[in-house]
Amino acid sequence: MSVKKKILFIHRWLGFITGLVVFIVSITGCIFCFQDEIQDVLYSYRKVESQGVPYLNPSALKATALQKYPKAVVNYTYYYGKDRPAVLMANLDKQGFVYLYYNPYTGQFLHEENPQRNFFIIVEYIHLYLLLPPKIGSLIVGISVIIFIGMMTTGIILWWPKRKTDRKRSFTIKWNGRWRRVNYDLHNVLGFYATSIALILAITGLSIAFDWMREGIYTAANLGKAYPTEKALFKSDTLFKGSLIPPVANQAFVFAQKHSVDAQMFLIYDPTEKAGTVGVTAYRKSLHFYHSDGYTFDKHTGKLLQYQPHTQKSAGMKMNEMNYDIHVGQILGFTGKIIAFLASLICASLPITGFIIWLGKRKKGRYKKPRGIAKAAVK
Q: Contacts from 263-268 at CB under 8 Å and sequence distance 24+?
């Protein structure tokens, strides 16, 4: 067996092993790329009229949420932008989590969302976990993506033209050929064009699934240099519990707004644990998670424990925070989303076109006459 045949054998069996998972992960990735744009069109509660006045503070919105669900635990408050609602994540214990949408200027209740019934959140969970328990699902998806990277590598080796005369044929699809030839070109040519983007999507996807990949990217981007302050864990001083009357989350939010003046979106974390800390993340652009400033406060005294502006973060930390925006393509705006969508669509087609190629060769081999019989017939 030649080297190329061995590579083809590996490529084919890797496809059999991961084909279904790759198709599911890729097609759900296509759907999820434009989830913000689609939901903005479908749901009016995702938009509010900007009023040019300060937002209501987090404690006021939290009090409103607790009036609706007195026994709920509300630790997270999101301010998505001047023309977008504030969203509180309420833990209802046995009933799970719900998202409560409010007008950030008036406190008017807009909508209650059960994430288990949101189409795009379901799509996201299929994409991440195949609707299996997270630990099992992420492992299956992660291993399949690793194998898919191996498939793309072997695919490029198989595709690579040996002669200069074959290069034109290798880069174009013969649309006027027979359907089997068109299918063959769709698998090889589109696979080649999508490989570079697909590799980026695969690596960022692995960073979501596996801590070791995230740490590997962090270490590689930092050239092995350690930044211990970026991973430092802080606790509130419980000796001062109850000493501060105004809610620290309100003060923290105001402080972050003053120091991150260009930020459009804010996430406030106000934990119930005694030693927990209040955290504020200020994102420069609404619905984008790259380029953010981080603030950590003692929940009892309001003391600023850590300030991490984007400009002072290490290259590794910036790369990890860029991960989601790269994965869905929005790092390059709407054009980037289109590129990610097309690359994911091609990846979803590869298991199908590859299976058709294998099936065609299998049938061709079955109906092909043995040489001995063919010679006897000539005589």
A: 263/292, 263/293, 264/81, 264/82, 265/78, 265/79, 265/80, 265/81, 266/78, 266/79, 267/76, 267/77, 267/78, 267/79, 268/58, 268/76, 268/77, 268/78, 268/79
Q: What is the pLDDT of residues 191-222, one digit of tens each?
A: 999 999 999 999 999 998 889 999 999 999 99
Question: 87-92 — which CB contacts under 8 Å span 24+ positions?
Answer: 88/61, 88/62, 90/65
- pLDDT digits 0-9 by tens, 92-124: 988 889 999 999 999 999 999 999 899 999 999
Residue type, 228: P
The domains of the chain are located at: 3-37+122-222+330-367
**Of residues 225, 220, 280, 222, the one with CA closest to residue 249:** 280
- Distance between CA atoms of 251 and 302, rounded to whole angstroms? 7
Residues 6+ apart with CB under 8 A from 109: 64, 68, 100, 101, 102
Three-class SS state of 243: coil
Low-confidence ranges of the chain (pLDDT < 70): 1, 164-168, 242-246, 363-379
- Rounded CA gap, 358 and 365, in Å? 11
Largest pairwise CA distance in the chain: 105
- The SS3 of residue 275 is coil
Instruction: Please say whether the beta carbons of 293 and 281 come within 8 A.
Output: yes
pTM: 0.86
Give the pLDDT confidence score for residue 159 in this predicted structure: 82
